[in-house]
Amino acid sequence: MINFDQFSKYSKPGPRYTSYPTAPEFNEAFTQESYVQILKNQDKNRKLSLYFHLPFCRSACYFCGCNVVFTSKEDKKDRYIDYLEKELKILSKHLDMSREVLQMHFGGGTPTFFSAEQLQRIIALIRSYFKNFSKEAEISCEIDPRFLTQEQLDVLVKGGFNRISYGVQDFNDEVQKAIHRIQPYETTKRAVEMARSAGIESVNMDLIYGLPYQSLDTFKKTLELALTLQPSRFAVFNYAHVPWMKKTMRKIDETTLPHPSEKLAIMKYTIDYLQSNGYQMIGMDHFAKPDDELFLAIEKGELHRNFQGYTTKGGADLIGIGLTSIGEGIRHYVQNFKEMEAYEEAIDNGLLPVHRGLTLSDDDVLRKAVIMEMMSNFKLNIANIEATFEIDFFDYFADAIQALEPFVAEELVQVDKEGKKITVSTTGTLLIRNIVMPFDAYLQKIPESKRRFSKTV
Fold first, then answer.
1. Does 122 lie in the same domain as 18?
2. Three-state secondary structure call for residue 164
3. Is the pLDDT of residue 2 over 60?
4. Residue range 20-44: average pLDDT?
5. Are residues 413 and 313 located together in one domain of the fold?
6. Of 3, 47, 120, 317, which is the most exposed, with the fewest CB atoms less than 10 Å away?
7. pTM over 0.85, yes/no
8. Which domain does 207 fall in, by range?
9. Hey, is 136 helix, strand or coil?
10. Are 335 and 23 within 8 A, CB to CB?
């Protein structure tokens, strides 16, 4: 186990690398016109991945870093669906909607805070525009077990949804009170059993470590309870405490947060416990059973990372639809407005609600390939990078290789110049964000004291 006194220097602000360049580099020089030109010029043979942001929640979970709108009014949700319809109509003027859809995801907020009737309307709306869904399409939805009815589940299944992700975070009563999310084990168990009875076999469960009042002993109990439900996948996230970005996080008493050494102990135990119970570690924070597509993707070298975490569906252009949604292509990122008023105003003017984005340079594309492969697979095939980008890797990344020397000395990373590969050790996987940071050209320009990210440990 890591001795935190020895490795305390690694507890520093750093990106989670759901993208590269990271979201702080997005800017308003990337406009609606920029995006329209990209859509018109996209390869029509590339497949599509669709993300729909359904932002509403009834009340705040204090740990949540998502873009959320709190409401109890049904008319707000109906109005939002109206604007989704308008956005799709505008999008259809610029995007070839006949392209094959390989993946679709409903995120939030709480998608199942929408009624069964509202969900049915959303799905019918999507299907009226995108009619070429692959037979192998992964169609998934984030679900709060506290807000799930049989009627909603029936609508999702009928709409083709075959994967669901349940937010759990922690089963401990004291932790749940501190994060303002009371969700008894029986509530989650009922939701999992409902999904299985409806024929959905792929169930993911989200847990978070680093929350108030957590300890290794309390999290052991959460893991034991979670395992009784036998999800196909686990996503075990390091809590990102960013109160300067998320006001609700200011309600958390920082003195109750576990020490970084306790967080490392929790993560190390989680890896050992889940692997000893038949799950394999996938990337930084996911675990899957060996027969799950996520694990099989690693075996084939087809695992990818995006804003939804790890995915098996690469080689597709991600189209973000709805408030604050993010899209991604080979050489761009694009994000919709975060404020409802600005989102609606753009659409009312017949425009896609683009707030900001980024066009990637050749250097961005190269560094993205390096960082994402290491984040996904804990290793890098240097020969492939050199062949793809026609560079001398050790010359191009001389500074990054030098910055990795402390990790090499502590046997967290192995740099094999003759075999042309970089391999991260088992212990090093706990610090993967730190290990890829030297390859981030933007981060190197920001003094460490001014980096506004969550702590890596």
1. yes
2. strand
3. no
4. 95
5. no
6. 3
7. yes
8. 9-326
9. strand
10. yes
